[in-house]
Design goal:
By secondary structure, this protein is an alpha/beta fold. It contains 21 helices and 20 strands. It folds into three domains: 120 residues, OB fold (Dihydrolipoamide Acetyltransferase, E2P) (Beta Barrel), CATH 2.40.50.460; 271 residues, inorganic pyrophosphatase (n-terminal core), CATH 3.90.1640; 114 residues, Roll (Diaminopimelate Epimerase, Chain A, domain 1). Strand 8 and strand 9 form a beta hairpin. Helix 5 packs parallel to helix 9, helix 9 packs antiparallel against helix 10 and helix 12 crosses helix 14. The protein is globular, with a radius of gyration of 25 Å.
């Protein structure tokens, strides 16, 4: 449980903002808490429009890349898209493959095997791609650190268009065109890999349209492609602000009605057909299924599902992804339990440790990134997990790292680079390779860097709340208004509130298969609302003992028999002294 609640102070701008936007002061306060106290910014956030997306001409490199693609197609040369194996990479790859097929290109894709090839461009794969006749390679969601591999492609006679969004290194690859928000000084620096790919697809659509306006078939495709871009954007946990918010909002709206055969199959297997989809559906239902292929098998199946597969084949792949995801969940639970106990046994849960670094033999390399996230959630510290195969004669381990706000992970790994074979990623997530003989030196260096950068208060589990809220205001009308702030995610979390002092109204219930959830009705003396507290059954004794308590909660809707009731999903409980 968080050790401290921080309730946002009332913004002086909220009343004026509420009047201008014609919303409640509470909703205006939530906007101010997101740094959106300026009217124009708040208006754009509250009412995003597809027309607010910047055109490809605003993104240096996209038009030049579209021209190079047109030249390659005219010359009859093959194009290969080299995409990353996560959701962001496979959706971006699918977007570009489909638009290039519409442009009548000879196009194929290549997705590296996570366990056998690792992240990014693989030199052997690049050599084989060129040997198989590729005249142009387009990277998706990778490549910005692949100087050597891109030089190899160039030396072999291929041209390279690099599209990526990950953190930069001092030296840039020698690609013919680089499309990267930071390299190109793009006005919105937080695009996902799929978002960057969509911008290039838009430029290609313009290049292959006869006039200034995109042809109708390309226009229809781009609208449908926002659904794929939304999957990649939400799954990659980039800030859901600006253009990411627009793509996520309209892409989610389009997912349920998408014409993409793969999306239809994925929704069918996840039992989401016909549902009104939100960001949680992507984060907890769809993305894990898509990632499961890359973690336990080969993510190329996901691209096939979104591109070449007919309905029967797409459903077959989606069903396989479902099975892989269940297997992933089992493996994840096993490794998480082991790693969690190692943290406690080695004292890394103590305050004098500002980070967690663990290694294990034969931990599944495709799952340790999720396990690292679980440890970050529980212990609130940057976490690095590395797995070694005892039978590997090269003694090279693969690692995954996850971070906390305020600790830029790729900078931390850069400080330890002399002990690593390689690394890549961004502020919150990264991958790495390390020799077994150098692991401890790396761990010591990472611990030292974390100790230098993080203070004890940075590790304190703090719960950020938007305001104190009377139970009387927890209504369906409030839910509808707050829902206009969706989709929620990174940089735009779900609104959370603190209640006033409450008491139980009636008898609480312990529910759930393992009797670990708490259902109760709560009252402030005038109003009563139902509340559910997941995994908090053990807190009931304290509630009964003290009698009075406050709740940190999210307002949620409970729909039953055509009626919508506003209830509380409890995040934390503060007992009276």
């Amino acid at each position: 449980m968080p050790s401290k609640w921080t309730i946002a102070t009332q913004s002086p701008s909220r009343q004026e903002l509420a009047e201008k936007l014609r919303i409640s002061p509470l909703a205006a306060q939530v906007l101010c808490n997101r740094g959106l106290s300026d009217f124009e910014q708040a208006k754009a956030f509250f009412d995003p429009k597809l027309n607010d997306l910047l055109p490809p001409s605003a993104f240096d490199g996209t038009e030049k890349a579209a021209d190079l693609i047109a030249e390659t197609i005219k010359a009859g040369h093959k194009i290969v898209i080299y995409g990353d194996y996560d959701v962001d990479g496979v959706t971006g790859t699918a977007i570009l493959w489909r638009v290039l097929r519409m442009a009548e290109a000879d196009v194929d894709y290549y997705i590296p095997h996570r366990l056998e090839e690792g992240y990014g461009l693989n030199e052997q794969a690049v050599r084989q791609i060129v040997a198989d006749g590729a005249g142009l390679i387009i990277t998706v969601d990778c490549g910005i650190t692949a100087c050597q591999q891109i030089q190899v492609a160039k030396d072999l006679g291929a041209k390279v268009i690099l599209t990526d969004h990950h953190s930069l290194r001092p030296d840039l690859p020698c690609a013919d065109v680089i499309i990267h928000p930071l390299v190109c000084n793009y006005a919105f620096p937080h695009l996902s890999g799929a978002g960057v790919a969509l911008k290039l697809a838009w430029a290609i659509a313009q290049r292959f349209s006869p006039g200034a306006r995109v042809k109708q078939d390309f226009r229809d495709f781009l609208l449908d492609a926002t659904s794929l871009a939304a999957l990649g954007t939400i799954a990659d946990v980039v800030p859901l602000l600006g253009e990411n918010r627009i793509l996520a909002k309209f892409g989610l709206l389009g997912l349920a009605n998408s014409k993409n055969t793969g999306i239809c199959a994925l929704l069918t297997v996840a039992n989401l057909t016909g549902e009104k989809l939100h960001s949680d559906h992507v984060g907890y239902w769809l993305a894990p299924r898509l990632n499961a292929a890359g973690r336990l098998g080969h993510a190329g199946l996901c691209v096939e599902m979104f591109t070449k597969a007919d309905p029967a084949r797409a459903l077959e792949i989606a069903t396989y992804l479902e099975e892989q995801n269940k297997q992933r969940q089992t493996i994840e639970k096993q490794i998480t339990a082991l790693a969690r106990q190692m943290v406690i046994d080695r004292g890394m849960d103590r305050d004098d440790y500002r980070a967690i670094v663990l290694t294990g033999d034969n931990w599944h390399a495709g799952v340790i990134g999720i396990v690292a996230s679980r440890l970050v959630e529980e212990f609130g510290k940057p976490t690095v997990l590395v797995t070694f195969d005892p039978a590997d004669p090269d003694r090279i381990g693969q690692g995954s790292a996850r971070s906390i706000n305020g600790f830029v992970l790729d900078k931390g790994l850069a400080q330890c680079a002399k002990h690593l074979i390689g690394y890549g990623g961004h502020a919150m997530a990264a991958g790495l390779k390390v020799h077994r003989d150098h692991f401890q030196k790396f761990a010591d260096a990472f611990f030292a860097y974390a100790a230098q950068k993080l203070r004890p208060e940075d590790l304190a589990k703090t719960l950020q709340l938007d305001a104190e809220l009377d139970l009387a205001l927890v209504t369906p009308a409030l839910l509808a208004e707050l829902n206009r702030l969706a989709p929620f995610g990174q940089a735009n979390p779900k609104p959370k509130f603190a209640s006033q002092w409450l008491r139980l109204a009636g008898s609480p219930r312990i529910v759930g298969r393992n009797q670990d959830h708490l259902q109760m009705s709560v009252s402030d003396g005038k109003n009563v609302r139902k509340a559910v507290a997941f995994n908090m059954a053990k807190r009931l004794s304290g509630i009964l003992d003290k009698g009075q308590f406050r709740l940190a909660f999210e307002p949620i809707a409970n729909e039953w028999n055509g009626r919508t009731n506003a209830e509380l999903r409890v995040i934390d409980i503060e007992l009276a002294k």
